[in-house]
Design a protein that fits this description.
The protein has 114 residues and is an alpha/beta fold. It contains five helices and six strands.
């Protein structure tokens, strides 16, 4: 019997990893090397208790050193690592333009969903 996408896909199939938490106030020197070395997909820092600032590394490299990280940031909202794909689809319908920040049970970022 055929299974729908929401039944057969798992969060592991749509998550982009790895990510890291940064301090945007610190000097950007060395950050590009860290991104390349660890093959990071995104840089994150807390925006508030329940939201994240997310800079995709592709945008980071396009910007060079000229655009502040804060100007490149996209709002990321937490998505539980245990969320079903149907919940993730609902999330993006409810919050268009946001990224999903996949968090573990402690709220620590594990990856992003675009």
């Amino acid at each position: 019997m055929f299974k729908g996408a929401s039944e057969s896909l798992k969060i592991e199939d749509v998550i982009s990893q790895p990510v890291t938490i940064i301090d945007p106030e610190k000097d950007r020197q060395g950050l590009a090397e860290k991104v390349k070395e660890k093959e990071l997909t995104a840089l994150l820092w807390p925006q508030s208790t329940h939201t994240w600032n997310v800079v995709l590394t592709g945008e980071f490299f396009k910007s060079g050193e000229t655009i502040p990280l804060e100007e490149m940031a996209i709002t990321g909202l937490p998505v539980k690592q245990t969320a079903a794909l149907a919940e993730i689809i609902d999330f993006f319908q409810e919050f268009p333009g946001c990224l999903g920040v996949v968090v573990d049970e402690r709220g620590f970022p594990q990856g992003i969903i675009e």
